[in-house]
Amino acid sequence: MDKTKALELVKQQLPEKRYIHTLGVVQSAKELAHRYGVDEDKAELAAIYHDYAKYRPLDEMEQIIKDDGLPADLLTANTELWHAPVGAVLVRREAGVEDEEILSAIRYHTSGRAQMTELEKVIYLADYIEPGRSFPGVDEVRELAARSLDEAVMKAIANTIAFLMSKQQTIYPDTFHAYNDFAMHKGGHRNE
Ligand code: DGI
Ligand code: FE
Ligand code: FE
């Protein structure tokens, strides 16, 4: 898939602000991929498409969760999570991306999961630390990202869980599983 065409497709799906965020994620993902020996072209494409479904209507996303065999527990989870797995379905269907590594990086970019691949970690972290982000704790994660991919992702996940808990929001099980996996192994990974 050609990068310019991918960016054009994504631009049509997103408001200006989210498109600028996407360009930031692309920049951070390429840097992280380079630093940690992850395929830079895959990181770039996954970053371009990671928020593809972010502005789809909830009823359309709900239908895709039901029709495309996505985990049924998503239906009762925070709807903020939906755009990630639904995005993976739509990027395959509408953009013709078949690469399972890229699709799983899109699928898990919001929740994380146990045994994340290196590409999944890069996209999760790039989404968290891209230059446009300015929430509390982001600079600490940026510093960690310079020396350890696993420690940076673990801190980002811990911050997200703490943030959600401070607002008395639910935590999706995959997010806890991701955290526990890093805490137990300090760096379990799948495939590589
Ligand atoms: O799509 P973005 O805004 O770029 O970032 P994202 O895909 O990480 O979405 C973040 C939102 O998802 C944020 O508002 C927190 C929310 N969220 C809701 N429930 C969960 C969750 N994030 C995680 N990791 N786990 C949850 O259980
Ligand atoms: Fe997202
Ligand atoms: Fe994002």
TrEMBL record:
The keyword Phosphoprotein does not apply. Keywords: Hydrolase, Iron, Metal-binding, Nucleotide-binding. One of its GO terms (molecular function) is metal ion binding. It catalyses: P(1),P(4)-bis(5'-adenosyl) tetraphosphate + H2O = 2 ADP + 2 H(+). Residues 18-132 form the HD domain. This is bis(5'-nucleosyl)-tetraphosphatase (symmetrical). The keyword Nucleotide-binding applies. PANTHER family: BIS(5'-NUCLEOSYL)-TETRAPHOSPHATASE, SYMMETRICAL, SLR1885 PROTEIN. The lineage of its organism: Bacteria, Bacillati, Bacillota, Bacilli, Bacillales. Its EC number is 3.6.1.41.
